[in-house]
Design a protein that fits this description.
The structure holds two protein chains of two kinds. By secondary structure, chain A is mainly α. Chain A is built from five helices and two strands, in the order H-H-H-E-E-H-H. Chain A has a two-stranded antiparallel sheet with strand order 1-2. The longest helix of chain A has 18 residues, at 81-98. In chain B, strands 1, 2, 3, 4, 5, 6, 7, 8, 9 and 10 form a ten-stranded mixed beta sheet that branches. A six-stranded mixed β-barrel of chain B has the order 13-14-19-16-18-17. Classes of the chains: A mainly alpha, B alpha+beta.
Chain lengths: 109, 892
């Protein structure tokens, strides 16, 4: 099965979505990534990345427009089982790659 | 900007998602405004929008239907824009390669289209610059010319437009300036000549007079100093001058210190108060002092406008700017109200025209005619291309069938062929633009004085037209072969040799040839009719003999024109000197020559007739100095001519009337001896002269009188008949004038023959253009016939070879080929004749002395075009006999 590799942003967006547990939309995902990685991300890039992930079947979304504020509408994302599986695979792969070397990273020379 | 980005976003993300993204971005935006301020927030939002557009345009997401559905069953469609673009790019690359492999075809196609588009572009540039482009003033659509008219006399065509186009009087000017609600700005201007004497060499300049509102009205802000202030106008004016940019740079060295200095005009001191920006021009449409028929609007400098006669008619041209949103009708209503209230002192009416119409209006139909001709040429070129393309399509069946077998869809193949046609179209327009760029200068130099010629060039509009024409013709006429070829791809049937039967294809080509010939015939008939009309025009007897006659127009400075006695003696001295020149047989003078012909009229009253409607008339009149009638060899039909005795101071005023006037007003009796009251004198009619054509050879003669006066208007045209070359007489006549008084200015120095020829300038131009276009079309049509026949022959070499081997004679085969090509040719010519009959009726207003369905012209054109087609077909057809039968049979 041919599968396109996920980019950095996509990877991080997936993880953030997992963490946000159903409350993931572009604003909160941006916040999460910035808080946890210190990396500044563009909101529109996140939005579009998550839509692409949805195309690939790793995320699903729902549109929420019942709002107290008029004109406010959000698209909330959540992981699909395939997305969940993919995340596990990626984490396992990374761990494998790092196997035995975590010590180097933690101790400064 | 933001709106534009939002629109792009909507296009690339879809309405739903773009709305959602925008909403979410708004949330962050609001927070940012609170934290970092509005400016930073705006900047952030714009960059997010740009990024969103950029990122989303690669894959185009369509809003998923029911985004709640499980993934996998509702994958949104992604039509990758990038994929589409790369496909087109491939097509273009392949197209170029294919065209390169067929150099002859490509060259013919591009050249054909280049010729057609080039000619059409040249004509279009003329139409665009003269007719379509806005006048070079701010918001020129709001500007109108306001004329006074004598409404009761408009029906009398004696002096035609002179009564329809009178400048405003001082009173009316003031009334409009101060009271109009519909006009936001209002000004008058006129022109005259003055001599700039304060520099080394005195120079006579065309000077404009402007009311204070003129420069602001037309959007001209002086680059130095100022314009005229309110109050600097009227019966007496200050001696102020505003220089044109051209004069300032050429004669004053662009020196800023010129403002405030004094210059001398007509020997009076004028203070320079300003300099105008470059390129400012104001066209006069009443008449032009330098006597060319079209005013380019350039004035060396401007002085405040003066009204000499307070209420008499003048030559002040009025221009107004309509209040935003106002219409001409509202202005008309306002003026009518003024008349009703008696605020305008005379029984004059008003006429309103938008300024562009005033300047170019009369030329509209002629320019449209040219555009139509060029359009037809373009269509002929297109038909050629279409026939060529479809002919080529025959040879590519195998290629297309192969591609289809390899999986190319029908649409894909059609797109490929269409791309090739588009490439041809673009190449054709590039060539056409090149031809136009090279051709426009020579085109303009041959043009008759059309207004606004200086604005003609390859503007953006013209270039756009050219490119669109190329793309358009390429695509439209590429459609047919595209469809045909893609159809073939569905029927992947080939026999061993890959030969095909040509049924549908041949019909299309024949149809194109027929269409081309039909259109070409229409053009040639139009050209032929115009040529014969022009010839008729040039053969008209003008009523005088202009050969060997030279003429010079002499002006008096305004300060002297009231001095009749002094004037008379200066003119007399000039006449004597001219008569004394070597080679001069006789000489005379008149106030206005028949060509270019400015006319003026006067009301006359025939004494002895009862007053009432039938007793007073308007006629044209000319003041002559004796010798004029003899020099121009105008026939004297009865009585005598004007002699020296009549020109002496104190002599009884006498008048010669022309045949037309005699016939019109003295049907039963002889007019000799009648007494005519005109202006402030009573004239005896002493002779009848033949009719003289004036202004234009096609104009029917009107009632006209020649009078002698010892005083005369402020300019006289001297004519001299020589037994040698009239051209060489002109410099000698100039010297004779300056010998009498070096301050006299001259204009219109020419021979009568040249002046008459000049009067048909527009006709010549029109005719020449249509003829050239017709010839081009004929060439294209011949190329088309040649190409189609050659193609047909080359495809049938095998068949021809076999038939010859079986004993068929060459001549018979040739006839067979010819018959095939000539049948559509005949159909085309027949259709063309019908078309020409319809179209030529539209030409009727341009024709002189010839009917729109003149049989001779039609026959000549039919025979001509027929012969050209036969020859064009014969050349390739005759190659049939050179086919070697044995060679063909061996190949079997």
């Amino acid at each position: 099965m041919t599968r396109t590799a996920l980019g950095d942003l996509e990877h991080q967006a997936l993880i953030a979505t997992l963490r946000l547990m159903g409350e993931a939309y572009s604003v909160s995902v941006v916040q999460e990534i910035e808080d946890r990685t210190g990396r500044e991300v563009a909101q529109s890039a996140v939005f579009i990345a998550m839509r692409r992930l949805e195309e690939k079947g790793l995320l699903q979304s729902r549109v929420d427009d019942q709002s107290e504020e008029k004109g406010r509408v959000r698209r909330y994302f959540d992981l699909t089982p395939a997305g969940m599986e993919r995340l596990r695979e990626m984490r396992a792969a990374l761990m494998n790659l790092w196997d035995g070397f975590s010590a180097e990273l933690e101790t400064p020379r | 900007m933001n709106r534009f980005l939002r629109t792009l976003l909507r296009w690339s993300l879809g309405t739903l998602d773009s709305g959602i993204l925008l909403s979410e971005l708004d949330e962050s935006y609001r927070r940012l405004v609170a934290v970092e301020g509005r400016t930073a927030a705006n900047r952030w939002r714009r960059s997010e929008l740009v990024r969103a557009v950029f990122l989303s345009s690669k894959p185009r997401l369509r809003a998923s239907v029911g985004s709640n559905r499980q993934n996998g069953s509702a994958a949104p469609q992604v039509v990758s824009l990038a994929a589409v673009l790369s496909g087109v790019l491939n097509d273009v690359r392949f197209g170029f390669r294919t065209l390169r492999k067929r150099p002859l075809f490509t060259t013919i196609a591009v050249t054909t289209m280049g010729l057609g588009i080039g000619a059409a572009t040249i004509v279009f540039s003329l139409v665009d610059g003269v007719l379509l482009a806005d006048m070079p003033y701010e918001r020129s659509g709001e500007l109108v010319n306001i004329w006074q008219t004598f409404p009761g006399w408009r029906g009398d065509a004696i002096t035609s437009e002179a009564w329809d186009k009178i400048g405003l009087t001082w009173t009316n000017y003031q009334t409009l300036r101060d009271n109009s609600q519909v006009l936001s700005e209002f000004a008058v201007h006129r022109n005259r000549t003055m001599v700039l004497t304060s520099l080394d060499t005195p120079e006579r300049l065309v000077v404009g007079e402007a009311s204070p509102g003129l420069f602001p009205l037309l959007g001209a802000r002086p680059i130095l100093g100022r314009g005229f202030l309110p109050g600097e106008e009227g019966p007496g004016t200050e001696r102020l001058a505003v220089l044109s940019h051209a004069l300032w740079s050429s004669r004053f060295g662009s020196d800023p210190a010129v403002v405030g200095s004094t210059i001398e005009l007509d020997q009076e001191p004028f203070e320079v108060i300003g300099v105008l920006p470059r390129g400012f021009r104001v066209r006069s449409t009443i008449f032009n002092l330098m006597n060319s028929s079209i005013d380019t609007g350039e004035r060396a400098l401007w002085v405040p406008v003066r009204f000499d006669k307070l209420d008499g008619s003048q030559d002040h041209e009025a221009v107004g700017r309509l209040v935003v949103g106002a219409t001409l009708d509202q202005l008309r209503a306002e003026l009518d109200a003024l008349i009703r209230e008696g605020r305008t002192p005379d029984r004059l009416g008003f006429r309103l025209t938008p300024i562009k119409d005033e300047v170019v209006g009369g030329h509209r139909s002629a320019l449209r005619l040219l555009l139509a001709a060029a359009g037809i040429l373009l269509v002929v070129a297109c038909a050629n291309i279409a026939a060529l393309l479809s002919g080529e399509a025959v040879g590519r069946r195998r290629e297309m069938a192969t591609r289809a077998a390899l999986g190319a869809g029908r649409f894909r193949i059609a797109r490929q062929v269409l791309t090739e046609s588009a490439i041809l179209g673009v190449l054709g327009s590039l060539l056409g633009i090149g031809i136009a760029a090279a051709g426009i200068p020579s085109f303009l130099s041959l043009a008759p004085p059309l207004p606004r010629l200086e604005e003609v060039g390859l503007s953006n509009g013209v270039l756009l037209f050219s490119v669109l024409a190329g793309l358009g013709t390429g695509c439209v006429f590429g459609l047919v072969p595209a469809i045909l070829l893609s159809e073939d791809s569905l029927r992947v049937t080939q026999d061993v040799g890959g030969r095909v039967c040509r049924a549908g294809r041949g019909q299309f080509q024949s149809g194109m040839i027929a269409a081309e010939l039909a259109l070409t015939l229409v053009l040639l008939v139009a050209g032929g009719l115009l040529v014969r009309s022009l010839l008729n025009l040039t053969r008209v007897d003008p009523g005088f003999d202009g050969s060997s006659v030279a003429t010079v127009r002499v002006h008096l400075p305004e300060t002297e024109s009231n001095n009749h006695v002094g004037y008379g003696s200066a003119m007399r001295q000039i006449l004597d000197r001219i008569q004394a020149l070597p080679g001069v047989e006789m000489a005379g003078a008149v106030d206005k020559l028949p060509f270019p012909g400015r006319v003026s009229g006067s009301t006359i009253r025939i004494e002895g007739r009862s007053s009432g409607n039938g007793a007073s008339f308007i006629i044209r009149n000319h003041a002559v100095i004796p010798g004029y009638v003899e020099t121009m060899r105008i026939p004297v039909l009865a009585g005598r001519t004007i002699t020296e005795a009549d020109a002496r101071v104190g002599a009884a005023p006498v008048m010669l009337i022309n045949e037309q006037m005699a016939r019109q007003y003295w049907s039963n009796e002889s007019p000799l001896g009648a007494r005519i009251r005109m202006d402030d004198a009573v004239y005896d009619v002493v002779g009848i002269v033949g009719n003289v054509r004036e202004r234009h050879l096609a104009e029917a003669p009107k009632a006209m009188a020649l009078i002698s006066r010892s005083g005369a208007p402020n300019a006289m045209c001297f004519v001299a008949r020589t037994n040698g070359d009239p051209e060489s007489l002109i410099p000698e006549m100039r010297q004779a004038v300056s010998a009498v008084d070096p301050d006299l200015s001259l204009s219109q120095m020419s021979t009568m023959t040249a002046l008459i020829e000049g009067s048909t300038g527009s006709e010549r131009y029109r005719t020449m253009l249509v003829l050239v276009i017709g010839i081009l079309a004929t060439v294209l049509a011949a190329v088309g016939v040649f190409g189609v026949t050659a193609h047909s022959v080359s495809k049938r070499t095998r068949e021809m070879g076999i038939r010859m081997a079986l004993g068929a004679r060459g001549a018979k085969l040739i006839r067979g080929v010819l018959y095939e090509t000539m049948l559509p040719g005949l159909v085309g010519i027949g259709a063309g004749v019908l078309g020409a009959l319809a179209v030529s009726r539209l030409l009727a207003s341009y024709l002189f002395g010839i009917e729109a369905w003149d049989r001779t012209t039609f026959w000549v054109v039919v025979v001509l075009l027929g012969s050209v087609s036969v020859v064009a077909a014969l050349v390739p057809a005759s190659r049939v006999v050179r086919v070697d039968p044995t060679h063909v049979l061996k190949a079997e």
